[in-house]
Amino acid sequence: MTYLTMVLGVIALLILVTSLIYTFKIGKLVSGRKAKYDTQLNEKVQDHPYSRNPVFLAYMIAAVLSLAYIFYLAFSISW
């Protein structure tokens, strides 16, 4: 059971990293297309585009929680 838990944790982490990379790529593509048509953004958002984006914040929080849970399981379960 512990091996299954570790494998599921690694798979979840891989899915999280893959989705983050995919989101970055799609974000660049969309921002490149809409740059001609959108209005000017707030200066605070322009200075910190990733930390002001709730999608990236959700990915960062999910990554930290996933890693914390994986490490908790790794150290609390006796092998």
Topology:
Layout (H helix, E strand, L loop, with lengths): L1 H33 L8 H5 L6 H23 L3
Helix pairs in contact: 1-3
Mean pLDDT: 80
Q: How much of the sequence is in beta strands?
A: under 5%
What is the straight-line distance between the termini?
Answer: 10 Å
**What helical percentage do the residues reach?**
over 70%
Number of helices, counting only DSSP H or I runs of 4 residues or more: 3
Output the structural class: mainly alpha
CA-based shape: elongated
Residue windows where pLDDT falls under 50 for at least 5 positions: none
- Let me know the largest β-sheet: none
Radius of gyration: 18 Å
Order of helices and strands: HHH
Number of strands: 0
Outline the structure in words.
The chain contains 3 helices and no strands. By secondary structure, it is an all-alpha fold. The protein has a domain at 45-79. Helix 1 packs antiparallel against helix 3. The longest helix is centred in the N-terminal third of the chain and has 33 residues, at 2-34. The model has no long low-confidence stretch (mean pLDDT 80).
